[in-house]
Amino acid sequence: GSGDGQGQILQRFPEKDWEDNPFPQGIELFCQPSGWQLFPERNPPTFFVAVLTDINSERHYCACFTFWEAVESPQPQSHARNGEGEEEEEEASAPVQPAQLFAPKSLVLVSRLDHAEVFRNSLGLIYTIYVDGLSVSLENVIGNLLTCTIPITGGAQ
Question: Cα separation of 133 and 135, whole Å?
Fold first, then answer.
């Protein structure tokens, strides 16, 4: 139809909420502020950071890296032509490949720390592994990213 849709969470890490840091509800709404829409061409990846404030006035930095993937059309389109002969009419009703559409897919990193460049690099790494189809599991990559220590700005190395 119009190409508008709703986002949904396909996978998340950790799978269950941490007691001191629950998963932000409605995070998929922040990934596509203009709405989830299909596009006729593949757009370049985008990156931005949104700052969400919870009920306790604590900030959560939501880094969002969005790229576009080809989607299959649910049904072939029929192409109509004006023709005089029966043979032409039979050819005219043959299905024609619909134009390929691209849907946005977002990788989101939520943190209490404000380190936009680290977020961009981490999400870029995850994106590269995903797109290149490397044999590394995303669970291991994300686990390794969660266990790295980031020094406080201006603090000791």
Answer: 6
